[in-house]
Amino acid sequence: MRTIKSKMDFERVFTQGRRYNHPLMRMVICDSLSEGDPGRVAFAAPKRLGCAVVRNRSKRVLRETARHQGFPAAGREIILFATRGTACARPEELSGALKSLCKRAGLDG
């Protein structure tokens, strides 16, 4: 899974991307700069969620859910943000939430 690593790319996706919200996660999606790019994804958990243990667990469950769904989508750059319910949600709930976000965004996820 290719990830967004540079701050510049992260900020570009965050400012230019389209936002989709669900109680268990948020998604920001933007088209890739180059044509035919395989796509990249980033996982974020804001400090307001809690201590580092909670934030890291939230990112881990988001990463596993995205891997299970076959992320990242080709030609897209996606940021998945954890919410308060992410860390304690069951995998089936997170999978359903990601499918719902993908459907609203027009992805084949």
From TrEMBL:
Keywords, alphabetical: Endonuclease, Hydrolase, Nuclease, RNA-binding, tRNA processing
Principal EC category: hydrolase
Record has Cell wall biogenesis/degradation as a keyword: no
Cross-referenced SUPFAM superfamilies: Ribosomal protein S5 domain 2-like
Ranges in coiled-coil conformation: none
Molecular-function annotations in GO: ribonuclease P activity
E.C. number: 3.1.26.5
Keyword tRNA processing: yes
Function: RNaseP catalyzes the removal of the 5'-leader sequence from pre-tRNA to produce the mature 5'-terminus. It can also cleave other RNA substrates such as 4.5S RNA. The protein component plays an auxiliary but essential role in vivo by binding to the 5'-leader sequence and broadening the substrate specificity of the ribozyme.
Record-given protein name: Ribonuclease P protein component
Upper lineage: Bacteria, Bacillati, Actinomycetota, Coriobacteriia, Coriobacteriales
